[in-house]
Design brief:
There is one protein chain. This protein has 172 residues and is an all-alpha fold. 70% of the residues lie in helices and 0% in strands. It contains 9 helices and no strands. The chain has helices spanning 12-17, 21-34, 39-51, 55-68, 72-84, 88-99, 106-122, 126-137, 144-163. The chain starts with 11 loop residues before the first helix and ends in a 9-residue tail after the last helix.
Length: 172
């Protein structure tokens, strides 16, 4: 029997992607209450919780997603949550398991490598993340634009970290 998506289903991506995390979280929670067997909904809520820096809840939802059905998005969510909790070794394992769900899709693999690099960077593994992106960009069959965008993002983040607490006004 097919189940129709809840009426708010079409609003979910807009709430999540336009920074209205509280609304996105509420909509995903409503969707889970309506049907707790949707592993993707738990994974999506895990990523929202990660954006909100609620790492415990993010990890809890990722684990629930994976208990319903192991998936690429579930392992990505778990890896992100574990990086947020500074459990880098466990995060690497989660990301490695995510690769088994890429099914040889080079675009999915590239995206996963870049997500892993950003998550490691956010767990203060700056050098490793930068090295991974640079090495990936040098590959023969990789989209260099995607790698350069992530590299630029990480460099801006490094600059922001380096300048944190410094005076930005020349009158200081």
């Amino acid at each position: 029997m097919l189940h129709a998506d809840p009426p708010h289903h079409k609003d979910r991506p807009r709430c999540i992607y336009h920074g209205r995390l509280a609304n996105g979280s509420k909509l995903l929670t409503q969707e889970i209450k309506a049907d707790a067997s949707k592993y993707i909904t738990y994974a999506n809520r895990s990523l929202v919780m990660a954006r909100k820096l609620d790492w415990d809840r993010a990890l809890q939802d990722a684990i629930q997603s994976l208990s319903i059905r192991p998936s690429l998005i579930g392992y990505i969510a778990k890896g992100v949550a574990l990086c947020g909790k500074q459990r880098v070794r466990d995060a690497r394992t989660a990301f490695d398991l995510a690769f088994t769900f890429a099914n040889g899709d080079s675009n999915a693999t590239l995206l996963l490598f870049l997500i892993k690099a950003i998550a490691l960077f956010n767990a203060n593994e700056h050098e490793e993340a930068m090295m991974r992106v640079k090495e990936l960009a040098a590959g023969p069959s990789v989209d260099p634009v995607a790698c350069r965008v992530v590299e630029a993002y990480l460099r801006v983040q490094l600059g922001t970290i380096a300048l944190d607490g410094k005076c930005y006004d020349v009158s200081c």
